[in-house]
Automatic annotation (TrEMBL):
Belongs to the HMBS family. PROSITE patterns: PORPHOBILINOGEN_DEAM (PS00533). Keywords: Porphyrin biosynthesis, Transferase. The keyword Oxidoreductase does not apply. PANTHER family: PORPHOBILINOGEN DEAMINASE (PTHR11557:SF0). This is hydroxymethylbilane synthase. The lineage of its organism: Eukaryota, Sar, Stramenopiles, Ochrophyta, Pinguiophyceae. One of its GO terms (biological process) is protoporphyrinogen IX biosynthetic process. Its EC number is 2.5.1.61.
Amino acid sequence: RRRRSRKGLNRRTLPSRSSRISMAALKTLLVALAASQAAAFGVANLRMSAERGLVRIGTRGSPLALAQAHETKRRLGEAFPELAEDGAVEIVTIMTKGDAILDKALSEIGGKGLFTKELDVSLLNKEVDICVHSMKDVPTWLVPGTVLPCNLPREDTRDAFISEKATNIAGLPDGSLVGSASLRRQAQILAINPTLKVVNFRGNVQTRLRKLNEGVVDATLLALAGLNRMDMSHVATSVLEYEEILPAVAQGAIGIQCREDDDMSLKYIAALTCAQTKTAVDCERAFLSTLDGNCRTPIAGQARVLPDGQLFFEGLIATPDGTKLYRTQRT
């Protein structure tokens, strides 16, 4: 009886050949099911990516910032057919501290980083995939976990002079009010004519032009690059050459930032980089970093690659009142 019991137990414990075949078939079925579920998950992910866009561009909400974001979107679509499809690239507007506080000078509310911090946070939180910046607003340091490997082809780096009272700074009557929030511009304006009064002048391009038309100031200076990108160059009374006003470091350049571990975004933006622009911008930012410059220091710099391949650089540092101004050139 014990032997039968053990024999019976063995029969119940050991699977038959037919049951072993069934188990093999079941295993195959489970593998196929897992593959099917994985494929379905992948399709769902692709569908979700398509719904939110393959690339989400973070940008400030000013007309100029949006124009730069749309330029980036257009270039991505030209370089990658999949990004030319409707909805493939999404533009996400983000309010920054610099946009929110307009009644104080930049130097009073924090200087550099005022127009980038909130974009950095959105990038690190994966709410956006890339961020598009005016390079002159970007600190010389980047937040850990991010890189800025791309500069689009640069626009005209000069400043535009806008006024109904004169055709240039030297022609303004003594005591005229010039609107500018930039210490760089202030120092160089006062070096030309110490009797002029430079007053804080914040807001986007349209806001500043409206204030000028309302007579709040007699003249103002704007980056020609911004006017060109918004098809508004006609509002410039004249264009100021470098001998008169040296531009801000990285003025006229657009930078694209992403997470350092985001291989897809890195691939996309690498195709958009202008090597000559990046070389010049890197040179200017190295100059600014060496001087530990910020919005509280009047510093200017402009670099360009010459036809013979050499890099020409001109830099300036001054006191805010323009009484001391030091300028140098290197090739």
